[in-house]
Amino acid sequence: MKRLISLLLAAALCAGLAGCSDHYERQKRKEALDELNGYTTIDYSLKDGSRLEQTVIYEKEGIKVTILGMKEDDYSICLWARLENGSDRKVRFSVEDLVADSWEINGSLWLEAEKGGIDRKCAYLDADELATVAPEGFGTLTVNGTVMDEEYQTLDRVSAQLKVTGGGTAMETPELQGQVLYDDMGVHLEYLGVAGSRYSKYLQFYVKNDRDAPVNLRNDDGVFAQGRYGEVKLTSGIYERIGAGHKRIVMIWMDDSQLNGQTLSELPVKLNLDLVDSEYYSSIAELRDVELNTGVNAASETDTESSAGQVLYDMGGIRLTYLGTSDDEGDTEFLFLAENNRKEPVSMESVEGIIWEDSEGMSYELTDSIDVSLEPGAAEMIPLSADPDLWEQYGEGAGTLSISELSIVNEDSGEEIDWLTDVVLEAVSVEQDPPEETEPAEESTIEEAVSA
Fold first, then answer.
1. Residue 267 and residue 227: Cα distance in Å, rounded?
2. Which of 14, 231, 273, 301 sits between 20 and 30 A of 411, alpha carbons compared?
3. Distance (Å, rounded) from C-alpha 371 to C-alpha 347?
4. pLDDT digit string (tens) for 395-450?
């Protein structure tokens, strides 16, 4: 009898625990949905006032996929999505293509949920890439994806075009043409130059795919530059997909920390590229030993004399060039040229000063520093003077000039565009020779001048 009572109590306890578990799961799901529903109408700040509304892009047989909105942080745009699984099996949702107006943009998304579960994740869209193809925002966002079961078998295809209210229009073509690497077989490939910020720098390529199948841009070896101390690997292998009928700016992150103060505009850069039809797995083209013209920038190309000097910085429409020295009434000045080809004003400031070091290792900080504001399209010569007393003692001959830290700022937004450290100008030669003596001109009379 006691044993029977014990069994009944154990059964009751199990039932109670099961009920508690169901209640807990229901409460957890309700809290999660309450949190997710807060992602409606998220601002997309590449264009003020533009919004992407929460939209259901797929709902069938208990499976529901919702785009919750977009949100921008310091480095990227986050596209939030949610998968709700009301079916009797585990399901997955994968995004293959994201297209802003007519531009394919980089951003992968993978959601999976068990039976009765939900999943929410973010597809990170590169803010630099979006700013390149859609500087004024974009009007539509197309999401192409696949719904799969737990065995990765395709259940359905999804293609949904979402409207961005208040959005602008993305560029039809790049503002400046770059270096054409390939244009045949329905594929157009250009190298656009270098872009980036303080934390990330990219090699930019423009790809237009007019074929009826996706194209893969592949490079198994990486990208190399011939640096001061030998070959430097800037990137690992490249594997990028461009959808059928799409065009895209491909942003390849690079590591330039090993360049030791040199800029890419000074260095030969080579790579191998393969263009592959990813549906039929056939080769379109094999490009070997392609030398990139790193002096061409996607957002900056001017007719100034700065190409005659040493280019210290040339990214995103901003260029700083060292032009050499000049003699101003016996005092030597170091000359720099700053150029701004962006649409907003920028400033440059050498935060920690500029250091001169002669061939014998004697060094000191220059009296002047770089501190300049440039309106859009403006260029300004920057003469930097040295302390006359120190210069008289240490200034002649060959040496090096180094900028410890240089800050470049967008003056409209106050945001930092880039931060350079330890920029070294090598083999700076300074001479303080006295002016050459010239014979005095012969005096002439007023009558001779008039007759001449």
1. 7
2. 301
3. 7
4. 566 677 788 888 899 898 888 888 877 777 755 555 544 444 445 444 434 344 33
Q: Give how far the C-alpha of residue 293 lies from the chain's centroid of Cα atoms, to the nearest Å.
A: 18
3-state secondary structure at position 145: strand
Domain that holds residue 184: 179-292
The one-letter amino acid code at 288 reads R
Residue 393 lies in a domain: yes
- In this structure, is residue 144 part of a structural domain? yes
Rounded Cα distance, 417 and 175, in Å = 20
Q: Is the pLDDT of residue 216 over 70?
A: yes
Give a three-class secondary structure readout of 404-424.
EEEEEEECCCCCEEEEEEEEE
Residues 6+ apart with CB under 8 A from 93: 58, 65, 81, 83, 109, 110, 111, 112, 145, 146, 147, 148, 158
Residue 223, classed as helix, strand or coil, is strand
The answer on 312 and 239 residing in a single domain is: no
Element (H, E) at 20: helix 2-36
Q: Contact 194/318 with Cβ under 8 angstroms?
A: no
CATH of the domain at 416: 2.60.40
Query: Which candidate, 176, 197, 265, places its Cα nearest to that of 418?
Result: 197
- Is 426 a domain residue? yes
Question: φ and ψ at 26, to 5 degrees?
Answer: -65, -40
